[in-house]
Amino acid sequence: MTLRRLGILWLASQVAACASLEEKVQDTEQLLAAAGFKINYAQTAEQQANVKGMTQQKLVAHPKGDKVMYVYADANICQCVYVGDADAYARFQKLAVEKEIADEQRQAAETNLDATMNWGMWGPGLWWP
After folding, report:
1. Model pTM score
2. What are phi and psi of 100, to 5 degrees?
3. Which residues of 44-61 are buried (b: 16+ CB within 10 A; e: fewer)?
4. How confident is the model at residue 18 (pLDDT cuts 50, 70, 90)?
């Protein structure tokens, strides 16, 4: 394999990794919203600085009196903070498990479909050197 091809493959893998990370963040944020987390957009410079100073793209528990609030900050994509209580967090966990199961079932179905494909009947193409 030539150096040029290796470079192209490396670049493609880096782009795919970035795209998959952004997709994962968007999936998480959709689940947070569906679970009832309230979204707060950083509209002022002070709010934007505050969001950037928070733990990014991870749910973090914050005790507030006798309750626990869960916060998810995203300074990169939406410049926002999702805030939810224990009930919203429980709904989020349930939705995340359901999504994981659905993703695994979809992946298994795609794998099974690919296994039944008769590639030889289509002759040489771009995927054959």
Report:
1. 0.67
2. -60, -45
3. eeeeeeebeeeeebebee
4. very low
